[in-house]
Amino acid sequence: MSSRRKRREVGPASGAGLVRFFEEVESKVGIKPYTIIWLSIAFATSVIILTYLTPYIIGKP
Q1: How far is residue 43's CA from residue 54's CA, in Å, rounded to a whole number?
Q2: 20-59 residue pLDDT tens
Q3: Does 52 map to a domain?
Q4: What secondary structure letter does DSSP report for 7?
Q5: Which residues lie on this side of the membrane: Cytoplasmic (predicted)?
Q6: In a domain, 38, yes or no
């Protein structure tokens, strides 16, 4: 049975359980990176457009 076990290196960080903690954590949010990029581009574009349109909306050209 011991021949089937994976051999782990024991170092100061892994001995304290710090490395293993981060290996076991899985992401709960399932957003793709491209979605975040497109949302940030859309947000930046809307901010730029609203910056130029705000004086005309308020009435101070």
Answers
A1: 16
A2: 555 566 667 788 999 999 999 999 999 999 988 888 777 7
A3: yes
A4: P
A5: 1-32
A6: yes
